[in-house]
Design brief:
The structure is a single chain. The radius of gyration is 28 Å and the shape is elongated. It is built from 6 helices and 3 strands. The longest helix has 32 residues. 60% of the residues lie in helices and 12% in strands. The protein has a 3-stranded antiparallel sheet. With 178 residues, it is of the alpha+beta class.
């Protein structure tokens, strides 16, 4: 799995930027920079291509020199490209919210969204429990916690016999039996 930086912008939403190596930047350097709207990098790459075609002779040795230079350039872009892209987003007003591990950017955004929902739900539950339980005497709080613990293990079926007459049929464990 890869690590991603989650960057958010108040108007433009959330983006996930991979940390580390970029294969698309390695194979499609100039086009990758244009796709990411990294205009300065794209112009620099284009200038390098033009200058190398003008100043490097069209011989076997010149071709070897050109290939080595382009390989070095592609390696640099691949190693630093995602970092440069994240920096560009930060200059546009994005702020880093988290770092998550995921297989791809879409999964990284989903993991971040789920963690945000879970933490918001935890805060809401804690606030609801805290204000309600503060009003109760100590012995009633213990009774309420015991009741909550007993209810966690209970099925939805009221009579417990697995009869199909209850809500949702006889199988209330959540397992589908086809």
């Amino acid at each position: 799995m890869a690590s991603f930086r989650i960057l958010t912008h108040p108007e433009h939403g959330t983006r996930a930027v991979k940390i580390g190596w970029s294969w698309p930047a390695f194979f499609f350097g100039l086009f990758w920079a244009l796709y990411k709207r990294m205009w300065l990098l794209a112009a620099s790459l284009f200038g390098f291509i033009v200058l190398s075609s003008v100043f490097i002779p069209a011989t076997m040795e010149g071709q070897l020199i050109s290939n080595v230079l382009f390989l070095g350039l592609n390696l640099t872009i691949s190693m630093k490209g995602n970092q440069w892209y994240a920096s560009l987003l930060e200059t546009q007003g994005y702020q880093e919210q988290a770092q998550v591990s995921a297989r791809n950017p879409d999964d990284a955004l989903a993991v971040h969204a789920n963690s945000q929902k879970a933490s918001a739900a935890d805060i809401r539950d804690h606030e609801q429990r805290g204000t309600h339980e503060q009003d109760l005497p100590v012995d009633h709080r213990d009774e309420q916690e015991n009741r909550r613990d007993r209810n966690d293990g209970r099925d939805d079926d009221d009579n417990g016999d697995g009869d199909a007459g209850g809500k949702g049929g006889g199988n209330t464990s959540g397992t589908f039996i086809g």
